[in-house]
Specification:
Elements: H1 3-8, H2 34-37, H3 41-56, H4 65-77, E1 83-86, H5 92-103, E2 110-114, H6 117-129, E3 136-140, H7 148-156, E4 162-165, H8 171-184, E5 190-194, H9 210-221, E6 226-230, E7 250-254
Parallel strand pairs: 1-2, 1-4, 2-3, 4-5
Antiparallel strand pairs: 5-7, 6-7
Helix pairs in contact: 4-5, 8-9
Amino acid sequence: MNDSENKKRSLAFSASEEPRFWWHRLPGSNYVPPIYAFLSEDEWQLMREWYAQTSRENLIGECAVPLMSFLQGFIMGNIIHRIVQLGTHSGYSALLLGFYLHKMGARRGLFSLEIDESFCHYARSWLKRAGLSNVVQVEHRSSLDPLSGTLAREYLGEAPELVFIDSSHEYGSTRDELDYWYRELAPGGTIVLHDTSEFAADFDVTKQGGVRRAFDEWRGRNPGVESFSFNKDVRSMDAPPSAGKDFCGFGLIRKSL
């Protein structure tokens, strides 16, 4: 890839009709967002290849530019070196978070739990290609396994500073994940949940209200805990709000010191 093509990076996605590239077709999105601009040429080339392969194999399920941008800024701006991720899928956020942690000088910085063994193998293969095997570990294990918290602390060295929940999207599992991982979180740490909007509640295969209901109920049971739900009432991806484009929404919980 020549220098001119590298500078364009994700701009080419705007010509694609794939649903995964919805952000790149929004008015005013004709620039390379920092989550991609920050990458080296080799890192970006690997992400291009990851996109191409996951499109061919229909392994699509990653978060999009708005949430990834928030995570990048929050993690790098706050020097967060210990992260637990619930739900690896095909490895998009594990790769990007791994690149950011590597630039920050972190080692053993991301512990990612995935219940599907095939996704574990897939993500690990890309992390190995990216040279991130000493930064990210993908564990084939339920996020609710009684040993998951212990293994995360052993890998990270201490309790996680950030827990990123983007796993089953089921009401019951998310409710239990919030209880479990809030206990495991370091004092002053943060939980970030994806898919807290009304629109994203349909992702729950059990049809019990998804992440939105689980988060709302958890907040009701824990009124003294700092929390926030972003775009919670968005019902459609056809008309994202003028400020805040992630129609799937996300939630924040901060554990007190």
